[in-house]
């Protein structure tokens, strides 16, 4: 055996790896393969999401009932403050329905963003134990929120039908799922961006909360823009806010029996495509960095 | 530079390569309570104090590790605490990314760690299901694998209790059972066997042999060199992130134990000498990967005039 001497005076063994059979475990796969791997783990994502829906309320007396109670109480708080005390309900048709749609749907996005930001930090055990595309974690977080949204939507529809002024069911209600699907895609994009950002800079966890609160007050959740904004250009800009568009479209469909105009659909679709596509690529590019400590 | 030639160093060199590690370097930035270090500037230290941050220290966990493992090998890693054994396993598993270097593997390695508590709120059975899905099984496969996992782990009724109520031994047994359920070709074990009782050890050793006989490769980290001597065909001795020795398990483990024994007895000079001798008698590995870039035209050395 001919052994060449290394700089330490030790022998050097040369190993030549034949091409083809071995794959890198340290480099992220190309985007297409990454998507394929992720879709192969769809059962894992669903099981993880379902497990989290249940474990989130475990140990409480009312259990999964809190999935509905929490947004309802949220809505009640805002109703008392904004509807009764501050009186911003003037000029809004069916303020209760307006408020409930605002609170419930905004809650879905804000929780997706918040939990998504913590998904990599909270999933550290799984990351350290198994090799899977890490995008599965923020995806499972948003899936969990989507599952938790379903009973909330049920309650929302019942309340809209039951509380005065009662609304009638129209065929336009059938378009609500489409709005929710677009919102979910938007949420996933946000969760992916926030997950990578907080994994790199943990301090952002604290900043995101403030950002969400600012966004809440700026999205016409419990009042309408028309009451406070006179400037037409400013109003135009505010109306590009994706959350405003989601809430406005849902209210049109459920409360006002009108079809949202094509501009709203275009704005929401645009936001979803940009945030989801950009967020996914952004997350994928950081794939190798999520394992560290 | 001379053309690198294939050096048959191992008697099993004909077997296909399953894991190739090339010049892997890992550094960690970790918080340190050692305030005596004057490496940071005075303003930085004051800022750290005011913000309640701990000073950061750079720890070199691995400093240029290269090795090649083949089908049917079981490779033991020995070394003191903090020598980089567990880090190397996590790197091979692809769970962490090295600062420099490359790891190739023939299939997805499965790491069996001590610390992973999975989802502590969920029961053992639910964690088994989730773990199987995370490794890429379908729900039907995961359900089919459950009885075998439960039998191998053998933790009785506890399988239905939340995993946070488990003793460390029970958790380790369940994780071992989950990891081998996927029938991985490359299994990385981090000190798991130490936690079981005699009966479990026997079953897990049997399972490891089974894996290796299916042309798999097993990596095993253990503080106890004796375990490596008994279980492995080959051993790596790591010291401060460097590879001291790489060779037949018995030889390496004997040398390591003799060194560690001297160290424990306070014979520091003798131990240092032994370490140096061992290091000199060892060898370095250089791994040559195929050029990943597509070569236009015939390679230069093959061109004829």
Automatic annotation (TrEMBL), chain A:
<protein>
    <recommendedName>
        <fullName>Transport permease protein</fullName>
    </recommendedName>
</protein>
<dbReference type="GO" id="GO:0015920">
    <property type="term" value="P:lipopolysaccharide transport"/>
</dbReference>
<keyword id="KW-0997">Cell inner membrane</keyword>
<dbReference type="InterPro" id="IPR047817">
    <property type="entry name" value="ABC2_TM_bact-type"/>
</dbReference>
<feature type="transmembrane region" description="Helical">
    <location>
        <begin position="95"/>
        <end position="114"/>
    </location>
</feature>
<dbReference type="GO" id="GO:0005886">
    <property type="term" value="C:plasma membrane"/>
</dbReference>
<dbReference type="InterPro" id="IPR013525">
    <property type="entry name" value="ABC2_TM"/>
</dbReference>
<keyword id="KW-0472">Membrane</keyword>
<feature type="transmembrane region" description="Helical">
    <location>
        <begin position="65"/>
        <end position="89"/>
    </location>
</feature>
<keyword id="KW-1133">Transmembrane helix</keyword>
<keyword id="KW-0812">Transmembrane</keyword>
<keyword id="KW-0813">Transport</keyword>
<feature type="transmembrane region" description="Helical">
    <location>
        <begin position="174"/>
        <end position="195"/>
    </location>
</feature>
<feature type="domain" description="ABC transmembrane type-2">
    <location>
        <begin position="62"/>
        <end position="286"/>
    </location>
</feature>
<keyword id="KW-1003">Cell membrane</keyword>
<dbReference type="GO" id="GO:0140359">
    <property type="term" value="F:ABC-type transporter activity"/>
</dbReference>
<feature type="transmembrane region" description="Helical">
    <location>
        <begin position="262"/>
        <end position="284"/>
    </location>
</feature>
<dbReference type="Pfam" id="PF01061">
    <property type="entry name" value="ABC2_membrane"/>
</dbReference>
<feature type="transmembrane region" description="Helical">
    <location>
        <begin position="207"/>
        <end position="225"/>
    </location>
</feature>
<comment type="similarity">
    <text>Belongs to the ABC-2 integral membrane protein family.</text>
</comment>
<feature type="transmembrane region" description="Helical">
    <location>
        <begin position="135"/>
        <end position="162"/>
    </location>
</feature>
From TrEMBL, chain B:
<keyword id="KW-0547">Nucleotide-binding</keyword>
<dbReference type="InterPro" id="IPR050683">
    <property type="entry name" value="Bact_Polysacc_Export_ATP-bd"/>
</dbReference>
<feature type="domain" description="ABC transporter">
    <location>
        <begin position="44"/>
        <end position="265"/>
    </location>
</feature>
<dbReference type="GO" id="GO:0005524">
    <property type="term" value="F:ATP binding"/>
</dbReference>
<keyword id="KW-0067">ATP-binding</keyword>
<dbReference type="InterPro" id="IPR003593">
    <property type="entry name" value="AAA+_ATPase"/>
</dbReference>
<dbReference type="GO" id="GO:0016887">
    <property type="term" value="F:ATP hydrolysis activity"/>
</dbReference>
<dbReference type="GO" id="GO:0140359">
    <property type="term" value="F:ABC-type transporter activity"/>
</dbReference>
<comment type="similarity">
    <text>Belongs to the ABC transporter superfamily.</text>
</comment>
<feature type="region of interest" description="Disordered">
    <location>
        <begin position="283"/>
        <end position="305"/>
    </location>
</feature>
<dbReference type="GO" id="GO:0016020">
    <property type="term" value="C:membrane"/>
</dbReference>
<dbReference type="InterPro" id="IPR003439">
    <property type="entry name" value="ABC_transporter-like_ATP-bd"/>
</dbReference>
<dbReference type="InterPro" id="IPR027417">
    <property type="entry name" value="P-loop_NTPase"/>
</dbReference>
<keyword id="KW-0813">Transport</keyword>
<dbReference type="Pfam" id="PF00005">
    <property type="entry name" value="ABC_tran"/>
</dbReference>
<protein>
    <submittedName>
        <fullName>ABC transporter ATP-binding protein</fullName>
    </submittedName>
</protein>
<dbReference type="InterPro" id="IPR015860">
    <property type="entry name" value="ABC_transpr_TagH-like"/>
</dbReference>
């Amino acid at each position: 055996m001919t052994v060449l001497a290394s700089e330490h005076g030790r022998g050097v063994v040369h190993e030549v790896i034949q091409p083809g059979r071995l794959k890198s475990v340290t480099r992220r796969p190309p985007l297409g393969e990454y998507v394929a791997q992720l879709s192969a783990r769809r059962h894992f994502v669903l099981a993880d999401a379902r497990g989290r829906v249940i474990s989130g309320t475990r140990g409480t007396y009312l259990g999964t009932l809190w999935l509905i109670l929490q947004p309802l109480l949220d809505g009640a708080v805002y109703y008392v403050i904004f509807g009764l005390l501050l009186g911003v309900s003037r000029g809004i048709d069916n303020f209760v329905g307006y408020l409930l749609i605002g609170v419930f749907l905004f809650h879905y996005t804000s929780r997706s963003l918040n939990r998504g930001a913590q998904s990599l930090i909270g999933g550290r055990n799984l990351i350290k134990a198994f090799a899977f595309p890490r995008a599965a974690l923020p995806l499972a977080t948003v899936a969990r929120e989507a599952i938790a949204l379903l009973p909330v939507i049920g309650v929302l529809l019942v309340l809209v039908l039951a509380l005065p002024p009662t609304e009638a069911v129209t065929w336009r209600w059938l378009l609500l799922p489409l709005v929710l699907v677009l919102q979910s895609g938007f949420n996933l994009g946000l969760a992916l961006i926030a997950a990578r950002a907080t994994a790199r800079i943990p301090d952002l966890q604290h900043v995101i909360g403030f950002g969400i609160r600012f966004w809440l007050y700026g999205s016409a959740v419990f009042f309408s823009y028309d009451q406070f904004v006179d400037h037409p250009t400013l109003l135009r800009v505010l109306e590009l806010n994706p959350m405003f568009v989601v809430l406005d479209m849902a209210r049109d469909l459920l409360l006002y029996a009108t079809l949202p105009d094509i501009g709203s659909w275009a704005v929401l679709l645009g936001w979803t495509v940009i945030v989801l596509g950009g967020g996914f690529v952004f997350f994928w590019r950081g794939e190798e960095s999520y394992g560290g400590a | 530079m001379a053309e690198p030639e294939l050096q048959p160093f191992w008697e099993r060199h004909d077997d296909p390569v399953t894991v190739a590690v090339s010049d892997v370097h890992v550094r960690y930035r970790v918080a340190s309570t050692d305030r005596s270090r004057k490496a940071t500037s005075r303003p930085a230290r004051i800022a750290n104090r005011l913000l309640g941050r701990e000073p950061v220290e750079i720890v070199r966990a691995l400093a240029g590790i290269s090795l090649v493992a083949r089908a049917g090998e079981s490779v033991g890693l020995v070394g003191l605490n903090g020598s980089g054994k567990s880090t190397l396993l996590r790197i091979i598993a692809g769970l962490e990314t090295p600062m420099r270097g490359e790891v190739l593997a023939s299939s997805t390695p499965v790491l069996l760690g001590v610390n992973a508590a999975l989802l502590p709120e969920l029961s053992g059975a639910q964690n088994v299901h989730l773990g199987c899905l995370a490794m890429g099984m379908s729900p039907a496969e995961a359900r089919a694998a459950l009885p075998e996992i439960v039998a191998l782990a053998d933790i009785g009724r506890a399988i239905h209790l939340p995993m946070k109520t488990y003793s460390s031994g029970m958790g380790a047994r369940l994780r071992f059972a989950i990891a081998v359920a996927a029938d991985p070709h490359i299994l990385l074990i981090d000190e798991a066997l130490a936690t079981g009782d005699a009966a479990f050890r026997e079953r897990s050793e049997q399972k490891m042999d089974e894996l290796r006989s299916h042309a798999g490769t097993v990596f095993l980290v253990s503080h106890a060199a004796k375990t490596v001597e008994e279980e492995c065909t080959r051993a790596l001795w790591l010291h401060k992130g460097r590879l001291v020795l790489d060779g037949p398990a018995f030889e390496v483990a004997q040398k390591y134990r003799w060194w560690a024994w001297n160290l424990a007895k306070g014979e520091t000079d003798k131990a240092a000498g032994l370490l140096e001798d061992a290091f000199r008698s060892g060898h370095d590995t250089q791994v040559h990967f195929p050029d990943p870039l597509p070569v236009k035209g015939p390679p230069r050395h093959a061109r004829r005039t």
